Predict the 3D structure of the following.
Amino acid sequence: MPKFFIKTYGCQMNERDSEQVAHSLVSRGYERVEREADADVVLLNTCSVRDMADQKALGKMGMLGGIAKERPQVVFGFLGCMAQARGASLLRNLPHLDIVVGTQKFHRVADYVEEAIEKKRHRGMDDPRFSIVDVGEEIGSQSTIREQQLALKQATAFVSIMQGCNMRCTFCIVPQTRGSERSRSIDEIVGEIRDLVSCGVQEITLLGQIVNLYGRHEFPKIDNKSPFVQLLETVHEIDGLERLRFTSPHPIGFRDDLINAFARLPKLVEHVHLPLQSGSNRILKAMHRTYTVEKYVDLVQRIRNARQGIAITTDIIVGFPGETESDYKETRDLVEHLQFDNAFVFRYSPRRATPAAEMSEQVGEDVKEKRNRDLLEVVNESAHRANERLIGREVEILCEGPSKTNSERLMGRTRTNKIVIFEGGDEFVGELLDVRIDRATGFSLHGTPLTQSETPATIAA
Ligand code: SF4
């Protein structure tokens, strides 16, 4: 059977979509390989959030033209967000590209791959080029991301609960690439999670572009609880599930029912990723973020009050059009004040057909770079301080497997989503265990597993 290679750019939702595609190919007998040079089918699942992600995927596909010249039978495809945004225009400069499939059609990829393989197999030297482009909308497509290939002893898994976003932040291309909000039913999601747990998964991350607004168009509030909180409660009941995460919420819609869920549902871990984007009300308004700095600060405080030791991480954009030194200083001061456990800092990148790209007062790249470096220093200091507070303490981790930076060691995640590196054998993989934190380096913690004779005094970390 043919071999396939799939490379994913971008966010966890893209990773999850790729796993769905991998599952559909493996279930038809295809073999997954780790190098494009070994593959008969090469798929790039793309991201459009920043220009750099677009360029990386385009550059990679261009380079793959070398393989196409040596082995013209190989099938090449672009999937996902950039495929959705650019459609058939991608075929223009990439003569070896065969397939372009958008974000609502991942479940059709295996069919299209088979069609392309067949066509290439029977194509004569003089036959005109063929291609398959499918970037249409499809009703119910949010329910098609529901299967995945689990690795041996896989302890964590992502579950896609909704697709799309209606928020229209002025810098963001996602509403165009992912469409409007569409949610799966609670029964469907719970069924998928039960299956994962029965295969040994202990930690689930619920995924959505705007995850806490899950179901707001489809399902009613019950007892003043949003559909998202109803979902959390139902998933929480699943026997064998130990940890529950979600990403990414919007500060709008993070209401009391969700904050209370952190106080009531112990499987909900002590971590919230809460995108801030800017610490200036003027810029938040221009971004169409629909909350104020004061509301965000109050929300962080209420989340911290609801669960002791909860970690809060965030996303921040520097150099948004019109951002003055004083706006930037407000962001810097707020980041210092809130002491995030970590933050992703992005330089603003104009995206085609978004309102912000058309705004006057675009900020120069040198200024963006300077603010980016400066803010990263502030973030790194608070992240380091948060890690150092854990030295000498005992924490629960879920071991995910070998460390990505040193395969001789293992890595696990605390409930607060911090990575811990430790020495140990295969018996730890896929298991919850207690470790003592010995030291902190960069963004990682290093620990030692507690022996059974040591009494674990596990804290939320
Ligand atoms: S909430 Fe805003 S930033 Fe997030 S996906 Fe929707 S439009 Fe984009």
In short: The radius of gyration is 23 Å.
